[in-house]
Amino acid sequence: xxxxxxxxxxxxxxxxxxxxxxxxxxxxxxxxxxxxxxxxxxxxxxxxxxxxxxxxxxxxxxxxxxxxxxxxxxxxxxxxxxxxxxxxxxxxxxxxxxxxxxxxxxxxxxxxxxxxxxxxxxxxxxxxxxxxxxxxxxxxxxxxxxxxxxxxxxxxxxxxxxxxxxxxxxxxxxxxxxxxxxxxxxxxxxxxxxxxxxxxxxxxxxxxxxxxxxxxxxxxxxxxxxxxxxxxxxxxxxxxxxxxxxxxxxxxxxxxxxxxxxxxxxxxxxxxxxxxxxxxxxxxxxxxxxxxxxxxxxxxxxxxxxxxxxxxxxxxxxxxxxxxxxxxxxxxxxxxxxxxxxxxxxxxxxxxxxxxxxxxxxxx
Length: 364
Ligand code: GDD
Ligand code: MN
Fold this sequence. Notes:
- It is built from 13 helices and ten strands.
- It is α/β, with parallel strands linked by helices.
- The strands form two sheets. It has a seven-stranded mixed sheet, sandwiched between helices. A three-stranded mixed sheet has the order 5-10-7.
- The longest helix is centred in the first third of the chain and has 25 residues, at 2-26.
- Manganese (II) ion binds at residues 134, 136.
């Protein structure tokens, strides 16, 4: 039993490492081969969903105002779901002070979740490009222009960003997690498309978004699932290497925040792996990412349980492996990895009784 456990743990660590090393060597150095059109200047609708964002909303609107994209080609829709901290009032005041920019505020009477709100806002959107912009992120001033430029390539259907965590303390763990994941996002994008998108900046061609029926209101990872559906339509969904945004990381309840995100990604992969006609270049990416999110964490869990049982039988191998596993926790990348695995395991279990489509507001 102890040897089988060691083998399972070996597979658990070896597969993602092999995938990482493979994509870094093979896919990451590939050229983008995009056909960009410098003169592409479509009308853009930025949808900013809010639920109790009074602390951040003004700075976020200022941040969007500071984008170097022409103001007459930009419209912002703030869709607020019954905030009780004065968020919509701040938005109204801001809109009055910036009347040269089109801003629509929609106030929902009940909170039914982010995706529901996005779909509601879509009905009022006039842009050729729809960009989702969470309240707790900050874009560099050329972020929108960069995203639009990439969408000028007719084969690209959707574009998202890389994330850099903002905040003290816990942002360190989040940072090392991001370094690993960002490499995968870029490499997958170069190979074809990435199945993981970020709502902090997720830009879609409006006609494609309509084609796929908008955002799924029963899956938490609305951004990733929608991007994947656009890939199934034959368009690419990519994250380029030079589109970085800053994201606020909660100082408290960091783990429950991570677990909820894990739950949402699990929901996305469970649904996306059921799709039949998947472009072949994307199928392998979807399969391996699906495996990494749905199956791989459990190899570690099963291995740990087997080793604990083997301890009862005084197995030297179990003692040695568990000691090594614990000692490695002093090593940050390993600790970060284990944290991510625990979030995926707890997330899968939580998904059995709650989908967290409407989630608790975290203090950032
Ligand atoms: N209108 C509306 N209604 N907005 C909401 C609701 C809601 O019920 N719930 C959350 N929001 C807004 C927040 O105010 C914020 O602007 C944005 O949606 C994202 O919410 P966060 O609370 O910041 O969530 P997150 O950063 O942890 O979520 C991340 O993962 C989600 C999937 O798990 C982001 O990448 C999201 O974009 C993604 O959907
Ligand atoms: Mn957020």
